[in-house]
Specification:
Layout (H helix, E strand, L loop, with lengths): L17 E3 L2 E3 L6 E5 L7 H14 L3 E5 L3 H13 L4 E5 L3 H10 L3 E4 L7 H14 L2 E7 L5 H7 L4 H17 L5 E6 L3 H14 L5 E2 L7 H17 L5 E3 L6 H14 L7 E5 L10 H11 L7 E6 L5 H5 L4 E4 L5 E6 L2 E7 H31 L7
Parallel strand pairs: 3-4, 3-10, 4-5, 5-6, 6-7, 7-8, 9-10, 11-12, 12-13
Antiparallel strand pairs: 1-2, 13-14, 14-15
Helix pairs in contact: 1-2, 1-9, 2-3, 3-4, 5-6, 6-7, 7-8, 8-9
């Protein structure tokens, strides 16, 4: 049966499903959001604290770099404290992968361009099998194998895909199939072309990302273009937004990308205007304050915040809660798309937060009641 809004439909690429710890990746599983810690892994307390912030932001999977023995020693403690599966990030020293697998990693991320010989990769595979780890093959345009650079002359989509296929074959030759693959580049065009080529060649889950994307604003724009382009085409099973920003910001941006495409819903989706001279209240500062104060809301719901009546009523009809700026510091509040009451400027912020919290509680209660009804035994027919 076709959708009533077919122009919104995204048909996801059919991929195999693997498990990263307790989290399914690929198949019909929700597209997961990842990030990576930036604290010294050897400092277990600092790393755990950062992981906790990322978990609160909604991270499904978190990657932790293991560059030395001190890090893999601390990794065992970090794994025990984490509430989500952890990926051990391995470069150059394959023995760190063996140690991380033994320490409880849910997945090992290896870069074919710098992990070493096929024999070393084989050892990593054996450790993954023994410990029930998945593996992510992380191909990166900045660290392609020398022979591929000589063959193609520069990083290009064909080179990235060939690198990925070579290492997929190596894992498959060792009868290992619990893997996902990334072919990342800092160039949006290169990354998107490589992922599209790989998506046609394999059926494994794909980890999307634009690597070294930049700071919070520039990196968000590049990642949204690249990752969003691929997701819109149905490609991608897990994503990481790479920003020169705190990792919890990566998580928030990742969810915003998924929310904008209707692929995941989590927390408050804010519809707000850019503001102009018609605004009845300070839209920019109001939205900034609301986004900060509503971060604790996990329940999916929508909120429109518009400064005047040009588009305000129309947007409010499509959201759970809406507010439209009016004159003399008196603003209209909409509930479920219908005009409901007014609120004064000095009370507006607290009032909106209260309404959102109340609506979230109602939605959660409804979901709980529905679950109870589903679980209830059917009554005997009279």
């Amino acid at each position: 049966m076709s959708s009533i809004r077919p122009w919104r439909d995204i048909e996801r690429r059919k991929s195999r499903q693997i498990m990263v710890g307790t989290v399914p990746v690929g198949g019909d599983a929700p597209i997961t959001v990842q990030t990576m810690t930036n604290t010294p892994t050897s400092d277990a307390r600092a790393t755990i604290d950062q992981i906790r912030r990322c978990e609160e932001a909604g991270a499904d999977i978190i990657r932790v770099s293991c560059p030395d023995v001190e890090s893999t020693k601390a990794f065992r403690e970090i794994v025990r404290a984490a509430r989500v599966p952890l990926v051990a990030d391995i470069h150059f020293h394959y023995k760190r992968a063996l140690e991380a697998a033994d320490a409880g990693a849910a997945c090992l991320r290896i870069n074919p361009g710098n992990i070493g010989s096929s024999e070393r990769v084989a050892e990593v595979v054996r450790a993954a099998k023994a410990n029930g780890c998945a593996i992510r093959i992380g191909v990166n345009a900045g660290s392609l194998e020398r022979d591929l650079l000589e063959k193609y002359g520069e990083p290009c989509p064909e080179a990235l895909v060939e690198s990925a296929l070579d290492h997929i074959k190596l894992l498959q030759d060792h009868d290992f199939h619990e893997f996902k693959v990334a072919v990342k580049a800092s160039d949006v065009f290169l990354a998107v072309a490589a992922y599209m080529g790989l998506a046609e060649a394999v059926d494994c889950p794909l980890h999307l990302g634009i690597t070294e994307a930049g700071g919070l604003i520039g990196g968000t724009v590049k990642s949204s273009i690249g990752i969003g382009n691929l997701l819109w085409a149905g490609i991608g099973d897990t994503i990481r937004v790479s920003l020169s920003a705190e990792p919890e910001q990566e998580v928030r941006v990742g969810f915003e990308i998924l929310k904008s495409l209707g692929l995941r819903t989590r927390g408050v989706r804010v519809v707000s205007c850019p503001s102009c001279a018609r605004q009845g209240f300070d839209v920019i500062r109001t939205v900034t304050a609301l986004e900060e104060r509503l971060q604790h809301i996990k329940t999916p719901l929508s909120l429109s915040v518009l400064g005047c009546v040009v588009n305000g009523p129309g947007e409010a009809r499509e959201t759970d809660i809406g507010i439209t700026g009016g004159g003399a510091g008196k603003h209209m509040v909409y509930l479920s798309g219908v005009t409901d009451h007014h609120v004064q400027s000095d009370q507006m912020l607290d009032h909106i937060v209260s309404l959102v919290e109340r609506k979230a509680a109602e939605i959660e209660m409804g979901m709980t009641d529905a679950g109870k009804a589903d679980d209830a035994p059917a009554e005997a027919a009279e």
